[in-house]
Amino acid sequence: MITKTRAIVLGTTRYLGNLILVKLYSENKGQGMYVHKSSRKNHSAFVLLNLLEIITEDKDNRSLQKLKETSVLNSFEAIYRNPEKSAIALFVAELIAKVVKEEEGNQPLFDFLVHSIERLNSSESNTKTFHLFFLLELCQFAGFYPFGNYTSEDSIFDLREGRFCSTYPPHPLIIVTGK
């Protein structure tokens, strides 16, 4: 079956001369490995975190699918001209590859990833804390985002329950904020 979708490049590996293995997170299929015939012309498409439009030849009985065509939708060049942004991009790509193991489409997660990469690319100001906010927002998709109930009275964060409370819980897994 031939499928057309958007995908984010999470990593590449050379394979048997002119072939490359590409780890992608796609809009329709989630994370997967693809094989593609490499040439000088299309090798620049597989830069880390590039947003691609891909056409694949999917076969249900294979874990390694074949890329028929690729085109770059957004190359996020500003990331790789700045060493600080480049380091953050490497961390983010590795984090996505290790944490997001879905093998089916998740449109809200895909949109979040694309928006985050665009924000990193276009940011002119301080990016030193980008990865921390990215991790916090990614927690929502992993299912353990803390409740947003912080007040000056509820200033003890219960790590077990994932919420702020006003009294100490019966266990030591807490973070005391404020005062």
Write the layout of secondary structure elements.
Layout: E1 2-15, E2 19-26, E3 30-37, H1 40-43, E4 51-57, E5 64-74, H2 77-81, H3 83-99, H4 107-122, H5 130-142, E6 156-158, E7 163-165, E8 174-176
Parallel strand pairs: 3-5
Antiparallel strand pairs: 1-2, 1-4, 2-3, 4-5, 6-7, 6-8
Structural class: alpha+beta
What is the percentage of strand-forming residues?
25-35%
Question: H/E series, N to C?
Answer: EEEHEEHHHHEEE
- The strands making up the biggest β-sheet line up spatially as 1-2-3-5-4
Query: Strand count, sense and closure of the main sheet?
Result: 5 strands, mixed, barrel
* Terminal residue distance: 60 Å
The dominant shape is elongated
Spans where pLDDT lies below 50 across 5 or more residues: none
Strands, count: 8
Report mean pLDDT, rounded to a whole number.
Answer: 85
**Counting H and I runs of at least 4 residues, what is the number of helices?**
5
Provide a compact summary of the structure:
With about 180 residues, the chain is α+β, with helices and mostly antiparallel strands.
